[in-house]
Fold this sequence. Notes:
heterotetramer; B: mainly alpha; two-stranded antiparallel sheet; C: two-stranded antiparallel sheet; 20 helices
Amino acid sequence: xxGYGRTTASLLFLAGxxxxxxxxxxxxxxxxxxxxxxxxIVSRAPGETGAAxxxxxxxxxxxxxxxxxxxxxxxxxxxxxxxxxxxAGAGDLPKAPGGFILKAAADLLFPFLVVLGAxxxxxxxxxxxxxxQGGAIMAAAFFIPLLASPTSPLNHSTAALVEGFxxxxxxxxxxxxxxxxxxxxxPFLGKGTLGDLFSAGSLPLLYLAIGLKVGSELAGLMxxxxxxxxxx
Amino acid sequence: xxxxxxxxxxxxLLTTVGLYVFGANRFAxxxxxxxxxAMTVIVVLVGQTLSGxxxxxxxxxxxxxxxxxxxxxxxxLGWFFALLTTGAGFFAAWYMSGEWxxxxxxxxxxxxxxxxxxxxxxxxxxxxxxxxxxxxxEIVSWAAFAMMTQLGGPAATAALRYLLYALAGAMALFAGxxxxxxxxxxxxxxxxxxxxxxxxxxxKWVLFVLFTAGFGVKMAIVPFHLWQAPAYxxxxxxxxxxxxxxxxxxxxFALTLVLIKLMGPALLAGxxxxxxxxxxxxxxxxxxAITMIVPTYIALMQTDARMLLAWHGIGQxxxxxxxxxxxxxxxxxxxxxxxxxxxxxxxxxxxxxxxxVHRTKTAxxxxxxxxxxxxxxxxxxxxMGIIGLAGLPPMNGFVSKxxxxxxxxxxxxxxxxxxxxxxxxxxxxxxxxLIHNIFLGxxxxxxxxxxxxxxxxxxxxxxxxxxxxxxxxMPGLALSMVDIAQSALGIGLxxxxxxxxxxxxxxxxxxxxxxxxxxAIGVGALIFYFLGNRRWEVSQYDNYAGGxxxxxxxxxxxxxxxxxxxxxxxxxxxRGWVVKMxxxxxxxxxxxxxxxxxxxxxxxxxxxxxxxxxxxxxxxGLFGKI
Amino acid sequence: MTSGANTLVLPIVLPLLxxxxxxxxxxxxxxxxxxxxxVLVVVxxxxxxxxxxxxxxxxxxxxxxxxxxxxGIVLYGDRLAALxxxVLAVGALIFWPRAEHxxxxxxxxxxxxxxxxxxxxLSGDLFNIFVFYEIVAVASYGLAASSGDKAGFGAALRYLVLGALGxxxxxxxxxxxxxxxxxLNLADxxxxxxxxxxxxxxxxxxxxxxxxxGVKAELFPVxxxxxxxxxxxxxxxxxxxxxxxxxxxxxxxxxxxVLVFHDPAAISLLMAVAIVTIVAGEFAAYRAxxxxxxxxxxxxxxxxxxALALTIPATAGILAAIAVALHHAVVKPAFFVIAxxxxxxxxxxxxxxxxxxxxxxxxxxxxxxxxxIPPLPGFWAKLVLLGGAFDAGGAYAxxxxxxxxxxVVEAAYLFRVVARIWQxxxxxxxxxxxxxxxxxxxxxxxxxIVATLFVAPIGTALSGAAASAADAGSYVARVLPGRM
Amino acid sequence: xxxxxxLVAEYLGRALYGGAILLxxxxxxxxxxxxxxxxxxxxxxxxxxxxxxxxxxxxxxxxAAAPIIxxxxxxxxxxxxxxxxxxxxxxxxxxxxxxxxxxLLIRVKETYGTLDTREVAKFLAAEPADAAPAAGTAVAGTxxxxxxxxxxxx
Lengths: 232, 626, 484, 154
């Protein structure tokens, strides 16, 4: 099929797709979500988990297993990227250091980003945010210095260490409840007062593990791409 | 409990394993002979049990898989074909036991595949339900493939073609037995036989077509016949004659079982084809008639002796099926008897031809001639064989053909009788070509030193020819075996005596016929030797043509274009629509393959996803419940 | 909650834990990491077997985190799930990656594949299934490119693009289901489906889910990644992907069909897809020019058979699907072992039987079984499939006819190769097999023969598994005891 | 629900769903009509965003609050929190896949020296030279494979 033919065909099919998807979506009850499960969770979450942020309660409590999978996917992607890039032509990288401004800003930003990331992780059960968002900020904290001075690459083994321990911690927290005869990932520790920093039982611990894992994984992943990506 | 049938099957299995292990041994042929002889004895014992009033000899072997029971037992029909199988195995092993064996590079495979084929066929003829029938059928098909493909080269090509035909047939059969199970709830023969009259007409037709096509491929009924001649011809000697003699008859066995025993000729005759005067049975009868005629005339055009005989095998299968489909006791007896007779003379013929090939290294009819002086016993075998093939007295082929013709007359089907005569005419013409081009006329210079076939090969040939003569002289011997087969079919027996059959409108007594014939030959010999004997013996190269002396290096043995006039007449039939259909099918598969393959090589794979989602949603919008 | 319920989580979590620890363990030597990975896979086989024997007709259910269904995520372990947990682990054990194809990272990805795959078959929650599906997908993208072969990267990227787009479709499908039913628990959806998902929305959701999961399940037309990936990936990866992983996606489609989408329109949609998949796969294989691609196309066709089996109503269809899938899981990896050595044009295979008689003999055995020649297991699988189809009649009979015709084409391309192998070598001889090269295939060949001998008990066991998997009522009752 | 709120909901709904569909369509267009693999990946990112938007939109309720309990007040209407959690997960998954895709992209560029899908497809389709028609079932057909390749790649 030649280029124009395919473009035309694509556009036609796309137009059809748009029209049909629109028809499909319009048939859904917009603004009147059935909330079959959602409503029940909203009413029960504070009591059952002690987290003020119900999304967090879902992420770590009701659907904590999803979150484990989610963390795993980042880990898989990082491992796979490491595997794929392991043979890439590192070595002839353009290792031009960043300018003065970038370097100075990187040094300056680093502590702020770390603190901000930590804050977001630790308050994940109270306010918007959590392990993923905080982890991403943490990753940025370590990634920006790398952009500033590419010659001093990230210490991958430390990152891997943090990654491994954080991932293990998540599962060990989950397994801990198994040992007490509860189901996997059942929250434990006291639920505390709704809205307090030290509340919601083991949920913040999970978020901490997630934060560390996401942070180290993202930083490692991006660092790897930067390390080999200079050439192309 | 281990019964006779189990002993037989275990023996066949041990023979297969043993001959595969010890097949390279120089005594492998004798081991095989002993094993097949023992099997034949067991089969004869089974026959005694059956003629003693038992309906079937069961096997202790039984499995139940996924709730489907599978059983094995041998009834009269199966017994008849089992006897042919072990007998043919015996003669093939005999042929392979001496000098032939020494000359073969792949003894192990020849012996092993022969034993495997015997085992598979015994398994098939003793199947007790549709599931075991299908299993046996598949094993027979693949065992034959293993036998055909052994030599590689053109044999492998022909075998692959056979395989595809056989598998297509097997798939039709598979569909058939599954439809039977859906309709009756089990694979049992009895349930099917009980239920089939009450099935919807459409189901009956579907089953009839599927079974006929599935089994017909093995029988090589037109239009499923293209594979057979090349596949059988390129197989090495004894194996080829075994395949020719009995392998294709497995299709006949299965067709008889399903169409005659289970469905019954009356049921088939009741399945009318709308707007014509055909019904299922008569349509198949006419297909059979075509099968008798077309392959026979194709045989006529062959220049390879093996191919010529193999093509005849297809046509002869038509006679057998014709007799069986007539459905009267006489027709059935004729068809089954022809199966037996054909096995004897066709095997003798193939063995004789392979003896010639063994000595001269060629089967090309244009490259042979005048071998009568070099290989006289082979000549006698071939002569007796072609008399049987052409259906002339005193050989046994005459008796069975006579019975088939008579049954057609008695059921008032003269047109089919004419078709059978046309086929026989072609047979006579082509077998004359066979014997003429090999044994008569000028002896080739390069064959001047050719020796007669060794005794190990001559003896089985002559024995087979002898059986052909004896059962022609005293057809009652063979007909009493046919009785056992017929008793399993529920149509009734054909009364007979040692010399033939008595019918109200004309009987046949071969004792008299052969006697008269011998007497007539005696009279002829008297006249020839004592009254007008003007002959004297000269060298084969002492020849004259048009008054000119012909030296040995001048070729005058006319074998090219043996029947030019006839060839012009039947030429259009020769390369017919069947070949074109086969080619068209191949091309279709290839084109579809390229189309499908092209789909997978397209660079923009997400495009398909877009198309699929769009079309899928369109379909959802059109057919989904709103 | 039955006694084995808490162990449901272990086949997922233990390999996951191992995968997280593997890079750390590797500091003490790659061999140790390899050993740990293999031990965990063996443990998973054991766990699968334990689950199989613990659950009879009554499945094990566990509500993760103690949050009862449908609020939380449940794991549902019946014999079907146990079977595939074990099969996946066995596949990973036999085809554990070689050190030269990625080392510890490949071990990690394989463990993750095992964890994700186990989660995929055990999970009873639609979105959770999606998450595990993604784990499996991403791990296989990585493994597909791990050969270091030049073609690997392009093929893997093509695979990734298609797979990611398919995942988006799945997400839309899940969104549609959630928007209509307001729940993600499969049992809960099953309960609400007749009321909420019987219309256009439900059908569209099914279409999107089938097309999305179909990328992994090798359904036409979202399977265009298959030939290139299977030709370029390391043999061990190809064996696992073709042999096991593709079936896991089929298990998901099975659950969806049994529980949620049983309206005739959905069934006929899947049937159409299945028939086209079979035809496209077999015919493309007929014209394929090397062994790897031949088997890749053949694998597509076999998965089409599985999909077709799924459309056959009641237990018969599910039994057929399991039987065909299991048989293919034994046969196809062995084929790929042979293809790994015999690369290049088919004409170059002449003389193979002389160079490597064991491989040639094994090839014939596998070919016979996959064509469906009795008494090999492939025949029984086809018998159940076609028997079910003819029992159902109508369009199913047509589909069965297509399958039968495709079988002839299948035999044509497989035995064409067999004929080639037995021809005398024309030029360069085909590669020789060291015992270690062929041993995985020989092992699978032995499994095939053993299965032939024990086909009756295996059939009974699978029938039981199929019957319980087909029982949507008991699924809902087990997961939502209070809400029937 | 007040009539105003209903009206708002309807318009918002059309806008949100329309936006989601538009994002998906643009993304798919980039994936099917462009040759550059980088653009294909960007298209993929767009499709994922569109899907996420759709998911979030499902949970919308007019005049409802974000699902966070402030000051212990639990009886205010809230939007459905579940799709939000799902979208969080979906985003992270998308990030992982895209990162892996970027890594592969680097290797593709490095290996083939191009990001053009046609060139990559040509490389992949470079099969064993012998098209090898069936033994014994020789077919007179032309090697259609080459023509298909040429068609799709030019």
